[in-house]
Design a protein that fits this description.
about 260 residues; Immunoglobulin-like; three-stranded antiparallel beta sheet; 6 helices; protein transmembrane transporter activity
Length: about 260
């Protein structure tokens, strides 16, 4: 990816995943930043995908990936930077202001099945959305698809042959500008898939500064049909209105006393 190319350019290597290159880079980090704790790494203390303010995720929702991150190398990096400032006679606050550590979070989705019904059985198979007009696999086949007009036929063909799970839902960068920051929370918004089902949200975390720091994790979630969710909400509202109506029948207003 471009992110990996940036890290290779900054460090000056010809590979980002070669075992010898990774071993060399790890040794350099250990020597420069004081052992294993000086090797750049992110730990994810919590991770979840949700629709903010809702109990479930529905098709077309603006979802949010919420993660709490710990930079395990923060303390060792800070000590080394301060020592370097003292050695060079540079005010620490000046040197710290120039620190930048870039990371990217990329999100994809893979549909792994239908949602279980209330009895724990598989719900009836859903209609294959890929055959409908206007879906990503039908790029360029609808008259109102203005985006497809930007691509030539070869590009459209490659896009249609690509599997759904390889399409990015979101690619989001975040920059750490405080070398001493140990923990932080990151929230990334993206659109939920437009087909209901059980999904694996495939999250890749990539560094544009370090080698061997990339990570992947999966969050499994059900994505409900938006029309079904709205229908249930309307039914609940109708039921509440009926209950209110029944509850008020036969009741007399209290008489006012003079």
């Amino acid at each position: 990816t471009i992110v990996e190319a940036v890290s290779m350019f900054k460090i000056g290597t010809m590979s980002h995943d070669d075992s010898k290159t990774l071993e060399w880079f790890t040794d350099v980090m250990k020597k420069q930043y004081g052992g294993d704790e000086g090797v750049p790494k992110l730990e994810f203390l919590s991770k979840d995908v949700e629709t903010p303010g809702e109990d479930e995720i529905a098709t077309g929702d603006v979802c949010s990936l919420q993660v709490e991150i710990e930079r395990t190398h923060a303390e060792n990096f800070t000590k080394q930077k301060l020592a370097l400032c003292q050695k060079q006679g540079i005010p620490p606050q000046v040197a710290m202001q120039t620190y930048r550590e870039g990371w990217w979070i990329m999100i994809r989705a893979r549909r792994i099945g239908d949602i279980k019904d209330g009895d724990g059985k598989d719900a009836p198979p859903l209609e294959d959305e890929s055959e409908k007009e206007g879906t990503p696999s039908q790029l360029g086949k609808t008259a109102d698809d203005s985006v497809s007009k930007l691509f030539d036929e070869a590009t459209k063909e490659r896009f249609e042959k690509e599997t759904e799970e390889n399409r990015l839902l979101c690619a989001w960068p975040f920059i750490v500008s405080n070398v001493a920051q140990k923990r932080g929370k990151v929230g990334i918004k993206f659109l939920a898939p437009d087909r209901p089902g059980k999904y694996e949200f495939l999250v890749a975390v990539k560094s544009q500064e370090f080698l061997g720091a990339d990570q992947d994790f999966v969050v499994v979630k059900d994505v409900l049909d938006k029309e079904e969710v709205e229908r249930k909400q309307r039914e609940e509202e109708d039921d509440n209105e009926e209950e209110d109506g029944d509850g008020n029948q036969g009741k007399e207003e209290p008489k006012k006393t003079k």
